Amino acid sequence: TSISSAAAVRFDVLGDGHGSTVVLRWRHLLLDAKGVELFLAEIARLAENADSPPPRPDSWGPITRPGSWRTALGEAERFKDHFYALARTSIRSLGGVPPRPGPAAFFVEEFNAAETAEITARAQTATHELFQMGWFLAVAMRAHHAVLCRRGEDAESYQSNCPVQERKRGARHPIWQNHVSQLFFRLLPAEIAELGAAARALQGQFVAQTRERLDVAFATTSRLLRRMPAGLYLRMIRNGSHGHLTSFFFSHTGEFLPECRTFCGAPIAHGWHVPSVCQPPGTGIFFSQRDARLIAVISWREGALTAGELDIMRTRLRADLLGPDSIKP
Questions:
Q1: Residues 105 and 301 sit within 8 Å (Cβ to Cβ)
Q2: Distances from the Cα of 128 to the Cαs of 131, 132, 322, in angstroms?
């Protein structure tokens, strides 16, 4: 999570007599989600053997960079076309457009191993794909749609982006800075009514964007835009998203800290990410799992989600993940 205190990285150890909980907070500018897991893995490795050699140099990258300015500008033009095509339909966020200060809040929805196996089977049946990002994003979109429907509000479209790792699979470095790109997705109201159709539509968008390497195009665009004044950059993003930035934040970071069974001598019972969100959009849903147990974190800013709306979101989330029969009256 991001923090406003002076500490860039902060550890808190909480104990209740039955075990300990380690809470790590950090500034997102320093570490992305995968980077912080690599950071924890390095601490765990050195705690077991402080004299062990560092990872081999070939565990780095490769992280793609454009070879020339002409190539970079061409990549940026491709992303711009995709971004403004999405911007032709307006969006709504639960937090609304005017920024409001307020504390961060979250709810952790846990699923046991049997439930997680059922969720995985339902996802594969719905999309017939091995990579299930589209299905989980559809679940998150429908959870937000349920709350907007209860408010009596209509959205012309639902849009969200999904982080994509630039590190190669299995890489143990680099740890610091953000090494993620983004893919951008949209569903229209007619596509969101049925979970399977929504998941297949998003999965199709994922395949198309991956084939066109739009994650590379976005990463290149982001590096070019870092040279802009922050205020000008934010204004451009707000104009392209009708002030909302996005409908909500989303990610599925996969297996949490798979490299480690213990941490500083203690067995790891469970672990997950709890990202905080800004407002707008004011809300986000984030998935991860450890030891075949799925976690869904609903995160929001005060004022973006009421207690009753959280119940609506949780009910829709569980019904889509496990099936309507899983909801107890």
A1: yes
A2: 9, 9, 17
Q: Of the candidates 8, 117, 46, which has an alpha carbon nearest to the alpha carbon of residue 260?
A: 46
Question: What stretches of 49-182 show up as alpha helix (H) in DSSP?
Answer: 69-86, 113-127, 133-151
Other beta carbons less than 10 A from residue 226's beta carbon: 9
- The pTM is what? 0.90
96-153: pLDDT as tens digits:
888 777 899 999 999 999 999 999 999 988 877 667 889 999 999 999 999 999 999 9
For CA atoms 35, 223, 283, 145, give the dihedral sign.
Answer: negative
Three-class DSSP category at 294: strand
Helices 307-322 and 113-127, packing angle to 10 deg: 70
Tell whether the model's pLDDT for residue 92 goes beyond 70.
yes
What is the bridge-based pairing of β-strands 293-301 and 283-290?
A: antiparallel
Closest residue by Cα to residue 110 from 268, 313, 288: 288
CA 286 from chain center: how many Å?
A: 5
Helix (H) or strand (E) holding 269: none
Report the distance separating Cα 274 and Cα 104, nearest Å: 11
- Tokens 């849903």 locate to 285
How does DSSP classify residue 253? Answer: E
CA-to-CA distance for 268 and 261, rounded, in angstroms?
6
Cβ atoms of residues 118 and 185 within 8 Å: no
328 — pLDDT class (breaks 50, 70, 90): low
* Angle of the 307-322 helix axis to the 133-151 helix axis, nearest 10: 140
